[in-house]
Amino acid sequence: MECGECTACCSVLKIDALDKPAYTPCTHCNKGCTIHKTKPQTCTEFECGYYQGKNIPIELRPDNCGIIFIKKTDRIFSGLIVPGVEVTDIAKGQIKAFNDQGYSVILLKQGANQFHLMLADGHRAEDIYKEYQEYLSGNI
Q: Residue 8 and residue 51: Cα distance in Å, rounded?
């Protein structure tokens, strides 16, 4: 897949190398990356769920569905809600599909000090939360 016109990650992700806070538009994003050849490693290595997939409908591209899905572990996807884009029914359906495939989904929203957790069958909230914290600390 290709990003096409989507630049949601350029607005949502925190990029330490550019001193860019999360949920702040990147100053190097102008209908694409203006520093593409010299962009930070964080940007180069990032692949959202849409970019990683095959035959994914355009409606699930983050700028269309309102969520950037990111696989974190073998049991967890995170979903970063894109400001100014309505979360669509197809995005909600994707969350259900992830749950049906055995993934719990952690939804994060700008300015929210909490997250919304949609658990897959057999997952316990405290286990998923612990695994997510280990992922964030680099222990996974």
A: 12
- Alpha-carbon distance of 73 to 51, in angstroms, equals 17
Within the chain, what is the greatest distance between any pair of CA atoms?
A: 45
95 vs 97: CA distance, rounded Å: 5
CA–CA dist 77, 41 (Å, integer):
22
Burial of 12 (0-12, 13-18, 19+ CB in 10 A): buried
Residue 78: count other Cβ atoms within 10 Å of its Cβ: 21
User: Tokens at residue 107, please?
Assistant: 């939804």
| Pairwise pLDDT comparison (49 vs 54), residue with the higher score | 49
**Domain boundary assignment for the chain:** 8-136
CB atoms closer than 10 angstroms to residue 53: 13
pLDDT value of residue 139? 75
Could you read off the pLDDT of 89-139 as tens digits, one per residue?
A: 999 999 999 999 999 999 998 876 778 999 999 999 999 999 999 998 987
**114: its two tokens:** 């909490």
